[in-house]
Amino acid sequence: MHALIARSHKASTEHHRTRARGLLLILTLGSLAAAGIVLPLIWDVLGLINSLPKMQWLQSALRGMPVASWLLMFAWGLAVPLALLYALYHPHPHGWRNGLVVAAAMWLAVTWYVHMPDPGQCLALYSGADTACSLLRWGFSLSLGMATAAYLFLVFMLVLSVLGLLTEELAPEHVARE
What we know:
By secondary structure, the chain is mainly alpha-helical. It is 86% helix and 0% strand.
């Protein structure tokens, strides 16, 4: 009898893991699809931010080292989704700290983006580097798309968590206990 109960519990746990993986896969694919839809709007927002006044000292410093500033942009762009995913999987007792880290990473990435030399100048600065310049522009689009997908994934997970809390709160056994 004990073996039957243990086997049943193991099957139930495996079924739960399979459903959870399926839900995560659906959320991931949904986040990527939504990011593809939203990405043109984000480019417009970055263009709008790019038209704001700039810090001349930072802009001239980055203009003096274009390749380094372009490559560091990938690091700052990667920091945003990593901070989002860290906040999702490692909740801090003081939730504002994770939010502050995410906001700081976003501020750094956006500030760096609007002050760095335009990646479109790559060919003018480095003639003969057609492939490298194309990869650079493709990489920026991919990086922004992945950061957007990570943000949307976090939003989807938060919405599902809130819905889960609401359903637990409205469950009949919870209402009967009160």
